[in-house]
Structures are given as structure tokens and as C-alpha cells.
């Protein structure tokens, strides 16, 4: 009994040490970013990254970052991209999951396996081919071209919808069809409204990815008027040094909208993930 108690104590100590260590590693960059955002240029150049700023009421960096980086234009472009990409992706993903779950045909399993295989291929490995296609179709430096690239439904969303369809009885479809409904009617009038938790979960997961996406935005949107919020902050980078106090202020500005949305929809996200993980 003493050995078991001693082992349990050591395990508890190890568990909490690991949790505290992981918390420090996760929160330290955020703390440094917050401290740097309130420092003047002279303060930043003459102090350590962990030194406190002279005042937390100095919002000059935020004003400069917002105006010089043209963040208003970045937010507007990002909002347009988010609305279009998320709307199309949710419809494509949910309808695809509906077909794969409800209709059994030859190649059904192969298609699902191919989606899993596609998830293992790094996105950067296909960019040469994608860029050539975009260039041939004259879609570079156009916001709609960038949106087309992002509209591909991600694998995680498909599997979230698949798990939700597993929990919806087929009798719903059969009853509606017997009453004269079409497959489109079954999907849009009966099943789609029941997918609300999965839709919210997919919206948040896909939305965060689109909101933070930098590589393709920098590659395909080279016009200054088409910059998104992720590329706007690179206004303060250059060959002679980076203005990190302005960059950190801009980072905090970009975090606020997505943080507010997450706090609003966190219950739906957690319930969606939990419900989607249980098969009926």
C-alpha cells in the first residue's frame, strides 16, 4: 500500500510539473507579445523582452500599426474571404459527407481512404502545380482566385460531418422520401438543420485556418490593396530590421476578433467535437 501511495504521489507531482511547464511554454510568447506591444521604440531597444513597459496606457503603437499597415483594408478583405470560403466549404463538405454516409456504392470506401491519403500530403508540395494552374487561368492578384484555392473542403470537417451523420437515423430519410420529398429536400430541410453543432465546429476550425493563412495570401495576392490581415503586419518588416513593438501591437489587434468569436461559440465547438466523436 505504501508503494502504491508513493507511486501515486510521484505521478501526481510529475503530472502537475508537466502541466505547469506546458502552460509556461504556451503563455510565455503571449506575455512577451503583450509587453512588447506597449513599449516605445526606445524602450524596446534598451530593455529585455520580459521587462515591463513604462505604461500600459500607451496605445500609440496600436494606432500606428492599424493605420500604417492598413489593417482596416486587411480586415475587410479577410472578412470577404471568410464569408465566401466558409459558406461554400460547409455546403460542399456536408453534402459530400451526406453522399458518402447515406449512399453505398462501389468506391465509397476508396474515396474516404483517398481523402485520408490527401491529408498526409503537405500542402507546400503541391504549390508549384497549383501556382502554374492559377497563372494559366489568370487568377493571381485577384481575390476570387485566392478564394477558389481556399474553398477546398478540409478533411477534418468532412469527418466531423460523417460522424454526425452516423448519429442521425436513416429512418428520417426514409420517412421524408415516403412523404414525397427528394434527396435535396431530405438534406436541406431535415438533415442540414440538425448539423448545427458540426457546422459551428467546422466553421471555427476552418475559419481559424483561413484567418491565419499567410503563405498562399502572400503568394497569390501581391497587390497592396488585396492584402489580408495575416500579411498586413509584414509592413513593419524589412532588410534593415523589424519593428517588433508595432508588429506585436498589430498581432494583439488581430487576435481580438477571433478570440471574441471563440468565446461566443465555445460551447457549440466543444459539444460539436464531443458529439461527433461518438458513434450511434
Task: Give unreliable regions as ranges.
Answer: 276-280
Strand content: under 5%
What's the mean pLDDT score?
84
Order of helices and strands: HHHHHHHHHHHHHH
What is the overall silhouette?
globular
Number of strands: 0
Outline the biggest β-sheet: none
Q: Tell me the distance between the termini.
A: 41 Å
Provide the gyration radius in Å. 24 Å
Helix content: over 70%
Structural class: mainly alpha
Count up the helices. 14
Brief account:
Helix content is 74%, strand content 0%.
What does this entry look like structurally?
With 280 residues, this protein is an all-alpha fold. Helix content is 74%, strand content 0%. It is globular and about 75 Å long. The model is unreliable at 276-280 (pLDDT under 50).
Reconstruct the topology from this structure.
Layout: H1 2-37, H2 41-46, H3 60-68, H4 71-102, H5 108-119, H6 127-136, H7 143-150, H8 155-167, H9 170-178, H10 183-194, H11 196-212, H12 215-220, H13 229-232, H14 244-276
Helix pairs in contact: 1-14, 3-14, 4-7, 4-8, 4-11, 8-11, 8-14, 9-10, 11-14
List keywords for this structure.
280 residues, mainly alpha, 0% strand, MetI-like_sf, cell membrane, Carbohydrate ABC transporter permease, MetI-like
Amino acid at each position: 500500500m505504501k508503494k502504491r501511495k508513493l507511486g501515486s504521489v510521484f505521478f501526481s507531482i510529475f503530472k502537475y510539473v508537466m502541466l505547469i511547464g506546458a502552460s509556461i511554454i504556451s503563455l510565455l510568447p503571449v506575455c512577451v507579445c503583450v509587453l512588447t506591444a506597449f513599449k516605445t521604440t526606445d524602450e524596446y531597444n534598451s530593455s529585455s523582452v520580459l521587462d515591463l513597459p513604462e505604461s500600459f496606457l500607451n496605445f500609440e503603437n496600436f494606432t500606428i500599426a492599424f493605420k500604417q499597415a492598413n489593417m482596416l483594408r486587411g480586415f475587410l478583405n479577410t472578412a470577404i474571404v471568410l464569408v465566401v470560403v466558409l459558406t461554400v466549404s460547409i455546403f460542399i463538405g456536408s453534402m459530400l459527407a451526406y453522399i458518402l454516409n447515406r449512399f453505398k456504392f462501389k468506391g465509397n470506401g476508396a474515396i474516404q481512404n483517398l481523402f485520408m491519403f490527401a491529408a498526409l500530403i503537405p500542402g507546400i508540395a503541391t504549390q508549384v502545380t497549383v501556382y502554374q494552374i492559377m497563372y494559366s487561368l489568370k487568377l493571381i492578384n485577384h481575390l476570387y482566385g485566392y478564394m477558389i484555392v481556399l474553398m477546398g473542403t478540409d478533411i477534418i470537417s468532412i469527418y466531423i460531418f460523417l460522424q454526425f451523420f452516423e448519429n442521425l437515423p436513416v429512418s428520417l430519410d426514409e420517412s421524408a422520401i415516403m412523404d414525397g420529398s427528394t434527396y435535396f429536400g431530405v438534406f436541406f430541410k431535415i438533415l442540414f438543420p440538425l448539423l448545427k453543432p458540426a457546422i459551428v465546429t467546422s466553421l471555427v476550425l476552418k475559419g481559424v485556418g483561413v484567418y491565419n493563412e499567410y503563405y498562399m495570401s502572400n503568394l497569390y495576392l501581391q497587390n497592396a490593396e488585396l492584402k489580408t490581415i495575416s500579411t498586413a503586419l509584414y509592413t513593419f518588416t524589412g532588410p534593415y530590421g523589424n519593428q517588433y513593438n508595432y508588429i506585436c501591437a498589430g498581432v494583439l489587434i488581430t487576435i481580438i476578433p477571433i478570440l471574441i468569436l471563440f468565446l461566443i461559440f465555445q460551447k457549440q465547438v466543444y459539444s460539436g467535437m464531443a458529439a461527433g466523436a461518438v458513434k450511434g
